[in-house]
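INPUT
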Amino acid sequence: MKIWPGWERKKNDLREELDAHLRIAVEERMAKGEPYEEAHAAATREMGNPPLVADVTRASWGWQWLERAGQDVRYALRQLRKSPGYTATALITLTLAIGANTAVFGLMYALLLKSLPVERPDRMVQFEIQLYVGGNAKDRPSDNVSGKMYDALSAPLPASLNGLCAWDSTSMNLREASGTRPVPSAQVTGGCFRMLGVHAALGRLIGEEDDKPGGGPEGYAMVLGYDYWHSHLGGDPNVVGRVLDVEGKKGVVVGVMEPGFESVSVGDRPWIYMPSEIGDREDRHGFGSWNRVLLGRLKDGATVAQVLAQSDPVYTASLKAEKEFHYYTLDSSGEFVQASGAHLVVMPGRTGISYLRGEYAQPLYLIEGLVGLSLLVACAYLASLAGTRALARRRELAVRVALGASRGRLTAQLCWESLLLAFAGMGLGLLFAWGTSRALVRLIEERGDQPLTMNASPTGYVLLFALGVTGLTVLLAGVVPAWRASRVDPVREIKEGELELTGRRPRRMGSWLAPVQIGLSLVIVVIAALMSTTLVRLLATNPGFSTSGVTFTRADFTARAAQVSKDSNKAPASLYLSLLEKIRHSPGVESVSLSQAHQFGGATYLRPLSVQLPSGEVRQNGHMPNLSVGPDYFRTMGIPLVAGRDFTPNDKEGAPKVCILSRAAAEFFFPGQNAVGQMVSLGHAISKGPDQKVEVIGVVGDTLYNGLREKVQPIFYEPFFGTGGWNPYMEFSVRSRSTAEGETAVKEAFRQIAPDVPLYETVTMSQLMGNAVGRERMVAVLAGFFAVLTLVLSAIGMYGLLNYSVLRRKREIGVRMALGASRTGVVRLVVREALWMVVPGILLGAAGAWVASRFVRSLLFGVKPLDPWVLAASAAVLLGTAVLACLLPARRASTVHPMEALRTE
Amino acid sequence: MVKTEKYQNRIELLQGTLDMLILEALRWGSMHGYGIAQGIRFKSDEVLQVETGSLYPALHRLERQGWVKSKWGVTESNQRAKFYEITKKGKEQLVAEQERWQRMVQAIGAVMGAARTAE
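OUTPUT
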């Protein structure tokens, strides 16, 4: 192998120069009359040893270390080629360990650590709302604020801020030649882009002057996302001035966003940026629409604390002014309670905003910890492998020490092997990380939402991280064992022989590595077991409705409702009925209904209700979850009708007001009575007027409302056709033979009857259930993966150590057997050695698991952090692994033939 | 034995002195390695023998410093050899080395002279 051709040429040149020296010397002597033989001999003597001269001359070039390294690399490569089994195992281990670390860190970096691609991201701050119940902070602060808060805080701007931006990531209906469809958009206040310090790739961005009700004279100013412009419009350079129809409003393209910047929300990629005033008044300026995030930029020298001191009083004052407004939150027992107060929280905004962050930060740190542990296990495994290899080469090393090699030189040479392996492993690991990054993002992506466009593949800091991890691996699995292995005593090693018979073996290296490895594996196995149990328990929860065969398709009737009247949220009932009819008669459809919101749809709707019992007792619930559902909703969802009847299309406006209660709601209002036929009042107090009372016409089975960790909620169902409608978005639920048929039925019906109504992506109930356990699933899947990986590594590591020890003790075993030891006795010998590794390992692991399980407490469901069954099962798994690992060595030991073993003496 | 006697006559060269001697040997024209060694030996009346193991590292070092440059050429007897030639920078270095050497000789001379008078 040549390091580079110039080097070889220079070496040849030197050799020739020395040859010439000798020739000239011989010639000169011959010219003086000496015969050739004599002249040659004398000249050679005078010259000395030419290769040595060449060597010291090359040393003067100052590149000797490189040459030496080249030799070492060649030697190491040869050694690796000679043992393909070892090389392959080590490479696979390293690839998985480094790859998994890099992949998880990549996701963590993208989600939690990466700066926004804006000017001086460290000067950004973010506003959040923290709810209080009885004076205590409740849950995490929420990112979402309302438009009115922006209005209150932006005029006048707090003195410590340079700018303020309210950003609403939403989807808007864009009318194109091929039809109307919802596209991911961002509604931004006028100062956003200037405050962020982002620039246009083409044309200009939106400014203060564009963010006015009604837009500019040409229409609302629109800025296109760079990727959208490229992928959908072919990067058309003449796009500025193009007119867009967005929800019936006229927009005009004024520019294209620079590449690299997408949104202040991580994983969000708007196609179109538009002024916030394009939204309707209530949406943009209301106090109760929690649809936007709020970011500010600090003035130089200003602090986060100053911003809070200047903005929180403004917020609390505006909150006081809203008498009708109340915050609700879930208390620890899963009941809705009214918040006693709310305050602003100002946070550093360098990394932007992510709705995933609150949910995934803790699991990701946990997973990163587990991956780190498995890297340590891998290092321990590789170190013991390297140690064993070095032990096998003791004779060779001893000879080299005897010949004068320094310890440093030996260490360096042994290190090259691990260095080569580690960097090859890093290369493969990066490929692994790159390949799995998409899958990892998908693991946390929620179906039915806009797809996450997060780039978690290794770049920049993530590459540096990988390099650091690799360095650590080389240090732990290469340098340390190599340094230890290079401590050889040539005299003892070369005449080796009597040691094995003394019974007291010299301290092997790696003997402490095995218990550490087993301990770390136990920690990972326990976490994996806890999380899998949690996942299983969550999935085994009965939500009260059937989780398969149901699809939901959201339709946006805004335009149709506006045709009915200015304030209407509903299209004419006949349109809904004909759509339902059409879908009902499509192939494969068993049942269809429509509703505003549905179980596990994500949104929570509450309303105050009260009942006066004949005894005079008043039972009221200020915030009972409710849903507005059409006929056949319960049949479609698989919720049993316990008593009374279902809604019909005749339960419409003008007809007597009716409602259906869930069993828990019926039990709450009418304990021990038949609820059907009784009256419930809408509102806090008992209302006198007849129109505020509704009659209970049915009772249905209990269901969960929005999450698997909830307790069963009382639910109040109102008839879809009998109420005004909360918003123009309707959910069409379909029960069908296959979910594909359900989706097709809805799409086909809309295509025929209302092609102008935009449809959102269809989601299945099982996808929604999947979303509900997304976090737990991610942790369980990843922890399971690493548990298996570390178990395998520990097993192989233990097998290697035991096997080697049996080989070394072959003669001892032979002697024992010759002296009458039984085969079982010999097996016991091996097992005892294995136990010496496993028992301390399990004790170590139990302590580790005790610490680690504290961190996962809040993620668990239906299982305690120190569940004895989980702990026992995990320890049993490890013990089983250990038994597997010592089977072969024990067998080998028991088949030692005393005569053969002793004959080799 | 002849060889031993020869060795007794030799003087260990001071650190850095070899470089100066080589530069001096090259002052009058380009020369190959063997020629340089022979030149130094001849001029010093066989007292200074330059070992090949010192000569070539020194030559390569000087070349890397840019004080000499080398090219392949042919000797009078038609042998291919590498010829070294002093550069402008090398000549400046030689002058500096010579001055340093003179000062050192004077200084050592003064010390030794004083030592002799004290005896």
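end of record. The first helix of chain A runs from residue 5 to 31.
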